[in-house]
User: What shape does this take?
Amino acid sequence: MKLDEFAGQLEKNEKSEYEALVAEAQAEGADPKSIRGKLARLASSVLNRIGEQPNPGPIIAEFSKFYLSMPQKQEALPLTELSVKLPYPLGYKLKSFLDDKKLFDSGENVPQFAYDLCAVMGLLVRLAATIGIQGYVSILGGKDTGLNREVVETLRAPADGSWLTLARRLAERLSKEKNPGIAGSLQQALSTKITMEGSKKRSTSLAQALERLVGFRNRLVHGERVAKNDLEEAVDLLLASVRGFGFLAEFDLLVRRDEGGFRLNGLLPEKMEKLNPALPADQPCLVSQKDPKNFLSLSPILHFQEGHDDQEVTFDELFFLNAGSGERLNYIAYRYARQMDGRSLGSYDAFQDFMKQVPSPPIPKNPRIDYTELSEFHSRLFVGREELFEEVDNFVRGRPTPYGVLKALAGMGKTAVMAKLYGRYASKEEEKIQSGGRWAFHFCMHADGRDNPVVAMRSLIAQICDMFGKDRKPWLSNDLDELKDQKFPSIIGSAAGELKEGERLVLAIDALDEGIGQDQDSIPSILPAFVPDGVIFLTSYRVDDKKENTRVEERLEQIPDERRSVFSHSDPLKGLTKENVEEFLKKASATENIFPDTLEAVWNASTKDSEGAADPFYLRFVAEGLDSGQISANRPETVPTSLDDAFDEMWMNLPADREFLLHRLLCTLAVMFDYADDELFAELFSRDLPEETETLRPDDIAQLRSQAGKLLVYNGERYNLFHDRFRTFLVGANS
Assistant: This one.
């Protein structure tokens, strides 16, 4: 049993005993032999209680690695000597602070002394977080969406407190890995006890010391009066913290340029004639002095700029990320307190690539996603598809293959079909029983993180647990690999074992094509190759006129063709019959008497591009027109003559304020691959304005954008076009 598993099994009194052992291990002068003996007794008792083999050896070994491996006392370098060994600009700022401290101690007035102290502390927490972030990405590959979210939020709006919190979280997580690298040293440093150097000799953990320094900094910048004893205590805390980061003196911060490069330790960057060619070019890397093969890139959170006379930066300088997101990137140089845009520095592309490694969808608090509203929306005017539903029912009962596949041309109603199935089988217990199946659903869409495999698996797992009366907690995780390789297959296997004879577990996943983001992992790629007896995956995705979607099918390579059955009535799903259209119009207009000419006009327009079958996507606009009064059921001349005609009408009715700003925004979205927000467009459209013109604010964009209505879909505060067919209308099929 692993240490974290053991800790999770502890009852209240056992947990108190365990925490006391951790505190004893971290205290100065700890007796490892005594601690191991106490832990052995505790572990044996717990293992016996839970029915496990009474073998505490692995638990003791892991505990020793985490809490007893740090030397209890180290010879500390003088701080002035340490300042020339620590990474730049930490060493540079530390040296400046120590010079100011001499003046302060002699009674001289040093106006910026407190702020200089905070600058050194800020560099400590930023370096700690940077090491944690880069270690997490390089070792764990950004597979924990919960941690990813924290990383992205911290980088978007960093502050000393959030840097520190993130550093602690990442260091603790990485310390559980077999080879945590430099992050392992960081965790040991943050958790070890340090002694303050002032008159009040006290011990505290490095992390706690930094927390108190962050509190001091916040009081200072918010204008609170800082007493002399508070400042003196802060000085003691800082000096103790710097010593805690002494492990960084065992590393060089190097940037390779061709064969040579720069060494960034101490007071100033130093040019080097020769550096290890294995180091990635142009990336600041922490390199172990004992083992040069052991290095960690800190790019793009750190960026090095070589000085050039024709540029704003006229000397060699290291820039720290000051704020970074998909839309904005800002860096700061500590030597001359200057901020610069990431595009000017040339780090923008590298940062965007880095962000792809930490996908961070919004994770719903309740993992089970409720699609009732979606189902009701599509069911209100749903007509036809009886043959397809019969085919699906027969497939579920017979299970000829583990996978049933529904293919559809764009806008033909595949989501409406799946939403109808949701209404039938996901909400009414008696119908689930009658169907001989238990159904769980996920609808992939570019909103609320529903295109992310972690969100999808968590929702399906929660639904399965609820169906079979299982506790959700043991089956849920935010870690992609853990979900894909362990939790998701295991819960499916467990549920399959509880199915009654002839009963099915159906996992219906709509729109696999929308479950593919820019990341390597996607919802199609997490579908298991092995599916237990009694379990069925019902999937749908969009195809082209050749019945293909290579983006989806490439990610389904783990599932052989012979284990997939494409429904004959959806190969691909096509349009509706004239009888279906008549039924649709009766529902949409709430009348049994449809004017024959109106039916004919709708039929002709809806079949214009679809080979004798009505386009359901076009019918959506007819329904909206009937609701708004723009279309009259007894006036065929009010019916748009085609889908493009419907789009044209919507386009012409958009406001033309600020020189067709909303039209420009929609066209820009049409050629983008990702969501955008008001701040991005405010910056983008302000670039073309004359100098004397007031720049656009995000509020200006929001005011106009809100008038786009249903033409936009939202992902939190960000948005994109509501459908690819509208994108095609704006910029063509080959955009």
User: Anything to note?
Assistant: The radius of gyration is 31 Å.
